[in-house]
């Protein structure tokens, strides 16, 4: 199941409790909104890679494996291959590691490849930011399906989204950093992103399904107001 280039919320499954993860996956099946699930290393370390298929079955939604793969080409390719075989529709690889790594993952042809271009945290300004424009151009020219841009830096999203869209109208942009890291729902989508990634502001609440639906409708309202 490929991710579509459309507006939506990617729910970050970074919890450690497998039962809770599966319960939220089932809840999201019936939730109103456009949702995708991203499984991070924290949950994978507790539950094993088999959790990808379980979450996919429970939710019926596209699944991203966020291993933030950043190893040499041979190892990166093996990790990505394992994730696709376990049910991932997309995998996330770091762009800064270079074109040989990204192309080794892309060469598998087993699903979407999403590359991190710039990150949300302050330390991202120390090294990655100065290379972000070049990383963005590299990954779109390599024909990847998606890129990660930081919702916490709306100006960077705007500039980098412009570069990405100039190179490819098809690539989708996903942007983490909503609420827990300071960005507001809609900040990134209004600046050119397609999906906003939300973790703690959904799974760390009393009613995660309701939180997901509320954030989705907040984003859509801001988009409507902007038209
Ligand atoms: O909403 P949060 O802060 O609880 O979670 C944010 C999620 O987005 C979490 O899964 C992080 O690993 C991820 N993320 C960032 O927070 N910052 C980045 O720069 C990049 C990512 C990410 O998803 O990269 C693929």
Please give the share of residues in helix: 40-55%
Overall geometry: globular
Low-confidence stretches: none
How many strand elements?
A: 8
Strand order of the largest sheet: 1-2-3-4-5-6-7-8
H/E element sequence: EHEHHEHEHEHEHEEHH
Strand content: 15-25%
Q: Compute the average pLDDT.
A: 97
Helix and strand composition category? alpha/beta
Alpha carbon gyration radius = 16 Å
Ligand inventory reads: 6-(methoxycarbonyl)uridine 5'-(dihydrogen phosphate)
State the end-to-end distance. 30 Å
Largest beta-sheet characterization: 8 strands, parallel, barrel
User: Helical segment tally?
Assistant: 9
Write the layout of secondary structure elements.
Layout: E1 8-13, H1 18-29, E2 35-40, H2 41-47, H3 51-59, E3 63-69, H4 73-85, E4 90-94, H5 99-106, E5 112-116, H6 132-141, E6 146-148, H7 154-167, E7 172-176, E8 195-198, H8 200-203, H9 208-226
Parallel strand pairs: 1-2, 1-8, 2-3, 3-4, 4-5, 5-6, 6-7, 7-8
The structure holds 6-(methoxycarbonyl)uridine 5'-(dihydrogen phosphate).
Residues 12, 14, 40, 66, 68, 92, 116, 119-120, 148, 150, 176-178, 180-181, 197-201 line the site of 6-(methoxycarbonyl)uridine 5'-(dihydrogen phosphate) (O7M).
């Amino acid at each position: 199941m490929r991710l579509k280039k459309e507006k939506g919320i990617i729910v970050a499954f970074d919890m450690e409790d497998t039962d809770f993860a599966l319960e939220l996956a089932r809840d999201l099946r019936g939730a109103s909104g456009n949702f995708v699930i991203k499984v991070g290393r924290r949950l994978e370390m507790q539950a094993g890679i088999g959790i990808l298929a379980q979450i996919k079955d429970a939710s019926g939604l596209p699944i991203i494996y966020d291993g933030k793969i950043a190893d040499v080409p041979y190892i990166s390719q093996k990790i990505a291959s394992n994730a696709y075989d376990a049910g991932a529709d997309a995998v996330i690889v770091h762009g800064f590691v270079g074109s040989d790594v990204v192309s080794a993952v892309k060469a598998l042809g087993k699903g979407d490849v999403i590359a991190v271009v710039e990150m949300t945290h302050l330390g991202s300004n120390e090294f990655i930011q100065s290379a972000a424009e070049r990383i963005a151009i590299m990954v779109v020219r390599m024909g990847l399906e998606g890129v990660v841009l930081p919702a916490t830096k709306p100006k960077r999203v705007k500039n980098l989204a412009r570069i990405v869209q100039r190179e490819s109208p098809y690539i989708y942009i996903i942007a983490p950093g909503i609420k827990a890291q300071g960005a507001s729902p809609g900040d990134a989508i209004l600046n050119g992103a397609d999906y906003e990634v939300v973790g703690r502001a959904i799974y760390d609440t009393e009613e995660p399904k309701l939180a997901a639906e509320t954030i989705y409708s907040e984003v859509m309202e801001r988009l409507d107001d902007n038209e």
